[in-house]
Design brief:
alpha+beta, 4-stranded antiparallel sheet, two-stranded antiparallel sheet
Length: 138
């Protein structure tokens, strides 16, 4: 990586109070790779946490479906995903290979089969993406 870009990324980390993959890899490459491997090994449970259960212990409160409906009329999405079906699909090497470090700004995210995860505003945040979700539902 060019020195100029590396300096820019380091300044970005300090300004935004974030750690990038550049820093993870410099600190401990093996540990960084194990971190990605942990996500690959646990993607099913992560998926259920994000879409079915959240922090609820009560099964009666768990979701069965994800409904994408655009109330703001930005696009024409009105689609329901079956969480159980997607759960079975995601435990596939094709989807596990999608779990990689992000590439923008030194890598501040981890890409997932349904979106990405980042550490932002002192908390972990999972983001989902309709197109990726749609790929999991097929």
């Amino acid at each position: 990586m060019k020195k100029k870009k590396k300096i820019k990324i380091k300044k970005y980390e300090k300004r935004k109070k974030r750690i990038t993959w550049l820093t993870f890899e410099e600190y401990n490459l093996q540990l960084s790779l194990k971190f990605i491997e942990w996500f690959k090994q646990n993607i099913n449970d992560i998926f259920l946490f994000c879409f079915e259960r959240g922090l609820s212990n009560n099964k009666e409160e768990w979701a069965d479906f994800i409904w994408y409906k655009n109330e703001l009329m930005e696009n024409e999405i009105d689609f329901v995903f079956d969480i159980k079906k997607m759960y079975k699909t995601i435990n596939n090497n094709q989807f596990k290979q999608m779990i990689v470090q992000g590439s923008t700004l030194g890598g501040t995210t981890l890409k997932l089969p349904f979106g990405f995860v980042q550490w932002h505003q002192s908390q972990i945040q999972f983001h989902h993406n309709f197109e990726l979700m749609n790929n999991l539902s097929k």
